[in-house]
Task: structure prediction
Amino acid sequence: MISKKEITHLVERVKPLIEKYQRVSKYGDLTFFEVYTALAFMYFKEQRVDYAVLETGLGGRLDATNVVDPLVCGITPISYDHMDLLGKSLAKIAKEKAGIIKRDEGRGTKDDRYGNSLIVISAAQKKEARAVIKKRCLKEKARLYEVGKDIVWRLGRIKGEWQSFEVRGLKRKYTGLKIKLLGEHQLDNASLAIGMAEALEDKRLSPHVIKRGLMSASWPGRLEIAGRKPTIILDGAQNTASAFTLKEALKKYYTYQKLILVLGISSDKDIEGVCAMLEDIADKVILTKAWNPRAEEPESIKKYIGKPLEVTSDVKKAIVLAKYLAGSKDLILITGSLFVVGEARKIILKAVTNS
Result:
């Protein structure tokens, strides 16, 4: 992981260029994300990385990361989010996401199974989104492979925080795989990652390397177990689709007596949709908010919850209250916003360290 010292050094070097740009630009100020994307590219170059995995910040077509010619593209499930910027329909959102699929005229004409055309690995998509992705791939002469169709997983055992599975990839079958990430959606993600790794023809990663990489994968704030007796789950679900995925995972992977829901949502999200999705699994609800200007006031969220609830604008107080209300066999779910989950995670880890 990059150190604070290295970040400081990068910022000091790029600061004069940013200031010069701000003085002469006709396109407005650079955003925080644009600056940090530039810093990342500088760092990758100086570290001589062989491969860089870039995640778009928002959408894809106009994203700051989308200045590269990709070797392979991965598209996770497309759902309704950031609709004020990306569009009100799945088709419009998918068009923005599919903007990362770009033809590189410099690619050769090698005639093998994949050719040298860009390879796109997509998660299973809703009909409207899938049609847009397929159309874009045809336009850019890219080859599309889909999880659930060309890449298929099968669940094995679930033991504690681990789940085992196998994957039939594009080239071979992978058995005895394990990840410390719960939820069938994580098997979709793992399968997508395997497909992308297989697409890197010149790298030819061995099944052992892929297996080891999956076992070492971690994703804080995604069905993360942050405490026991009661079980405390942190999950950054912040839209209707991710809330549904979270709800289904809780049903399949966890047993508990009562569920205490600690919920805080950003003002630009589908608050009503998230509340409707999670309210029915909760026995008790505590509304809270993060220390972030985008956080919605808990009092404004109350109208979307049709059962008795508690309200506090402090995440720490919400956690204390949830623990007070929970028995040892209950589950505390902290969700609705990555900002809330991030704050809660720091509070809980600090408490563990100091205990």
